[in-house]
Design a protein that fits this description.
- The protein is α/β, with parallel strands linked by helices.
- Helix content is about 40%, strand content about 20%.
- The chain contains 17 helices and 14 strands.
- Strand 10 and strand 11 form a beta hairpin.
Length: about 400
């Protein structure tokens, strides 16, 4: 039996259902959207477009399909029938009672052409990520909130350091509930089947792709380059594909919540900054499977695991933002002196930095990127943190910047 996990994002979902006619829960397939929607609204009828007969009816007669629905309904996998959104809009314009339609989607509607504005003003979108390490540990997941509020403090270690193998296991398991519930070998098998299903079926729901298998090959290359600067030309050369094709397939991977691009942070006067985005696999478990890495490879494959740890932290922070402050934006910083900050978080002009290090030790010298970011931000810099695999929290030569254990992501 799959363990049920409390999802903090449920509070955002409940708030939206109280005052918005259409609430759309978006996130990767198998991340728990249907379970959450049906748990929050057990009185709603449930319809899934994974059923071929239902899908055919909705596509053939969208208006008739919506007219036949009960007063309150959950429509699962809405990205499979985008033509339904206009019919839902017309229905909502006639009856704007809150919580009428709960939609779920395994593709990011905001990235699909012509769909993001279909229900503007009538729909609120809530993003559900795979399980965070905090959710898996049944912890509140308050690290990001504490960073934003300036509540992180130095502290001498009072517990044993996190075993590297424990971190490695978290990385290779990832956050999909089905994978979390399985043994490592069975989790890898689930990851492979998950990717096969997405490539063979879901890709065509979000774009016209001539060769879906090429999307799978691109994913393998992106996994090997996770947490690195995106080089479209290099990917094209390695895969024998044109630049336009790589960009198209990359957009497909973004729409299906497989990869995330962090754009470079810069201020107008910062002429010496690198302008390339960084690419991150959203789920470290999927990335590990594509890379052929198991937890036992931690010592022999430290460089690859170092990149995976960075992508893992990015995902934890983005997911925690969903229930902390959905208006936060995420970037990376890198200048031509090769000084970088793995994650830059902004709210308006307020800016925070997060560096990631997979080693058991850290020193004030590791805060160079955070100090450089603070210089660029001036009075807008609110603080930074270096997350590492050790056990103590201490200042990095500036009380605004701290080194802290990675485990705070799921222990706070």
């Amino acid at each position: 039996m799959t363990t049920l996990f409390a999802r903090p994002i449920a509070a955002s979902m409940k708030a939206a259902l109280r005052d918005t006619p259409v609430v759309c829960l978006l996130g990767p397939r198998q991340s728990g959207k249907t379970t959450l929607a049906r748990t929050l609204e057990p009185g709603h009828a449930y319809v899934t477009f994974d059923d071929d007969a239902t899908l055919a009816f909705a596509r053939a007669d969208p208006s008739g399909f919506v007219a036949s629905l009960p007063a309150r309904v959950i429509l699962d996998e809405i990205q499979r029938v985008p033509e339904l959104l206009r019919a839902i809009k017309l229905s909502v314009d006639r009856d704007r009672r809150p919580g009428r339609f709960v939609l779920t989607g395994s593709a990011n509607l905001l990235l699909l052409p012509n769909l993001g504005d279909s229900l503007a003003g009538r729909m609120e979108i809530v993003q559900l990520q795979p399980l965070t390490a905090a959710e898996q540990s049944h912890a509140p997941g308050k690290f990001l909130a504490s960073l934003l509020a300036g509540r992180l403090k130095p502290a001498i270690a009072t517990t044993e350091p996190m075993a590297p193998m424990d971190l490695a296991k978290r990385i290779v398991t990832g956050g999909f509930p089905e994978a979390v519930a399985r043994s490592p070998a069975r989790a890898r098998s689930w990851h492979r089947q998950y990717l096969r299903t997405l490539i063979e079926r879901d890709v065509k729901d979000v774009a016209r792709v001539r060769d879906p298998a090429a999307v799978g090959r691109l994913l393998e290359m992106l996994a090997l380059r996770t947490a690195g600067l995106l080089g479209v030309a290099g990917l094209g050369a390695d895969l024998g594909l044109r630049r336009e094709t790589i960009e198209h397939y990359l957009a497909v991977c973004e729409r299906l919540y497989l990869v995330r691009l962090l754009q470079p942070w810069h201020r107008n006067h910062a002429k010496r900054l690198i302008k390339s985005p960084k690419v991150h696999m959203i789920d470290s478990g999927l990335a590990s499977t594509l890379m052929g890495l198991a937890a036992a490879d931690w010592s022999a494959q430290r460089e690859r695991f170092g990149h995976l740890v960075e992508s893992f932290v990015v995902q934890q922070l983005v997911a925690q933002a969903g229930w902390t402050d959905p208006d936060l934006r995420f970037w990376h910083y890198r200048d031509k002196d090769q000084v970088e900050v793995d994650v830059v978080i902004t709210r308006g002009r307020d800016t925070w930095g997060v560096e990631v290090k997979s080693a058991l030790t850290a020193s004030p010298a590791d805060g160079q990127g955070l100090h450089r970011l603070a210089e660029q931000c001036g009075g807008d810099y609110r603080g930074g943190v270096l997350l590492y695999a050790g056990q103590s929290a201490f200042a990095l030569g500036d009380r605004r910047n701290l080194a802290m254990p990675l485990s705070r992501l799921w222990e706070m």
